[in-house]
Design goal:
It is built from 12 helices and 12 strands. It is an alpha+beta fold and 313 residues long. Helix 11 packs antiparallel against helix 12 (290-307). The radius of gyration is 19 Å and the shape is globular. The N and C termini lie far apart (59 Å). The structure holds flavin-adenine dinucleotide (FAD).
Length: 313
C-alpha cells in the first residue's frame, strides 16, 4: 500500500488528455478498471511512475451500431456488456465469455479493453516477490531462465483473456490511438506471441474501440476450462464460429502466449482440429498438466463443432 501512495495518480477527462499525460516524463500506465494492473502492482510485477486513470472518459463507454458494425468502447465494464441488449441480440457468446471472467464484483469495474489487454500469466510468475526471488526469478521478471521449460530463449506465459477468443472468432478489429493518430487493425495483430511483451502496441497507445462486423448468420460456441467455476483464471479457453458461407474460425486461448487462430471450412474439419491441438505451445505452467490441456483442446473443439452442427466425416 505504501508503494501505491508514493506513485503519482492522475485522472484523464478526455482521450487527448490521456495521450498528453502518457507522454510526460517517466514510465506511465493507463488504468481502466485496475483489476489486473493494481493486483500485478501489489505483486511487484508491474511498476510505473504515474498511473493514468481513464475511467472518466465518457466517449470510451459507448456501445453503438454503425451500419453493419457493432462498436464497443473499451471502457465498457464487463457488467454493462453482459446486460446490453444490442450485444445480446448479435453476440451472446461475448456475454457468455464476459460472464466467465472473475466474479460479479470484479466485473462491475473490469472493462472490455482491460480484459483484451490483461497481462499474460504463468504459475511461476504470478507469485509474491519473495517466492520469485527464491527460485531465482524467471525470464518474464529479470531472471535468465524459464522455470517452466528450463529454456533460456522463450517465455511461455499464457494469454488469459476470456473475451478475446470470442472477439477473434467474430472477426473483431480494434481502433487504437497515440500521438501519431488513430488506426484500425484486426484484433489478432494486437498479440505478439512473446510471453514477455505479449502486445504489439506500446504502453503509450490507447485502445479506443472494438469493432465487430454484424453477421446474423454467425454462430459461436465458447468454452472455458478452470478448476473452479468461479474466480479462477482460464486453463484453456476456446471459441469456435461458423458463418452461413461455412467459414470456420477456431480460437484457442489460455495455453500459448497469444490466442491461436485457425481458419478453414467444412471440407477440412479433421485438419482444423489437428491444427488446433498442435499449434499452441503448451508448457507445464498451469494447475492442469500440459498433456491434459492438450487433450482438452481436441475435446472442446470437437464438441464445439458438433454443437454448431458440423460433424467430421
Ligand atoms: C481474482 C481475479 C480473477 C480474475 N479472473 C479473470 C478471468 O477469469 N478471466 C480474465 O480474462 N481475466 C480475469 N482477471 C483479470 C482482470 O480482472 C480482467 O482481465 C479485467 O477485464 C481487466 O480489466 P480492467 O479494466 O480492470 O483492466 P486494468 O487492470 O485497468 O488494465 C489491464 C491492462 O490493460 C491496459 N489498459 C486497460 N485499458 C486500456 C486502454 N483503453 N488502452 C490502453 N491500455 C489499456 C492497462 O494499462 C493494463 O496494462 C481476474 C482478476 C482478478 C483479480
Amino acid at each position: 500500500m505504501m508503494e501505491m501512495i508514493k506513485n503519482k495518480y492522475v485522472k484523464a477527462a478526455s482521450i487527448q488528455e490521456a495521450i498528453d499525460f502518457i507522454h510526460q516524463k517517466g514510465v506511465s500506465l493507463f488504468v481502466a478498471g485496475g483489476t489486473d494492473v493494481y493486483v500485478n502492482k501489489q505483486q511487484g510485477t508491474v511498476s510505473a511512475d504515474t498511473y493514468i486513470d481513464i475511467s472518466g472518459i465518457e466517449e470510451l463507454k459507448e456501445i453503438k451500431q454503425e451500419g453493419n458494425i457493432l462498436s464497443i468502447g473499451t471502457m465498457v465494464s464487463l457488467e454493462n456488456l453482459i446486460k446490453n441488449e444490442l450485444i445480446q441480440a448479435c453476440f451472446s457468446a461475448l456475454q457468455e465469455a464476459a460472464s466467465a471472467v472473475a466474479t460479479p464484483v470484479i466485473r462491475k469495474t473490469a472493462t472490455l479493453g482491460g480484459n483484451i489487454l490483461c497481462e499474460n500469466r504463468c504459475s511461476f510468475y504470478n507469485q509474491s516477490d519473495w517466492w520469485r526471488e527464491a527460485v531465482g526469478y524467471c525470464l518474464k521478471c529479470s531472471g535468465d531462465i524459464c522455470i517452466a521449460t528450463g529454456g533460456k530463449k522463450n517465455c511461455f506465459s499464457k494469454f488469459v483473456s476470456d473475451t478475446a477468443p470470442v472477439l477473434l472468432a467474430c472477426k473483431a478489429s480494434v481502433v487504437v490511438i497515440d500521438n501519431q493518430g488513430e488506426r484500425e487493425m484486426p484484433l489478432e495483430q494486437l498479440y505478439s506471441g512473446d510471453g514477455i511483451n505479449h502486445l504489439t502496441i506500446s504502453e503509450s497507445t490507447l485502445l479506443k474501440t472494438i469493432k465487430i462486423p454484424i453477421d446474423k448468420s454467425l454462430k459461436v460456441v465458447f468454452k472455458k476450462l478452470r478448476p473452479r467455476k468461479t474466480l479462477d483464471f482460464t486453463s484453456l479457453t476456446t471459441a469456435v464460429s461458423v458463418n452461413q458461407a461455412g467459414n470456420i474460425r477456431i480460437v484457442v486461448g489460455g495455453v500459448d502466449p497469444k490466442p491461436i487462430l485457425i481458419e478453414g471450412d467444412r471440407s477440412s474439419l479433421s485438419e482444423l482440429v489437428t491444427m488446433a491441438v498442435k499449434k499452441p505451445r503448451v508448457v507445464e505452467n498451469d494447475y492442469y498438466s500440459r498433456k491434459y490441456r492438450k487433450e482438452m483442446i481436441g475435446v472442446y473443439v470437437e464438441d464445439s463443432l458438433k454443437e454448431l452442427g458440423l460433424e467430421k466425416s
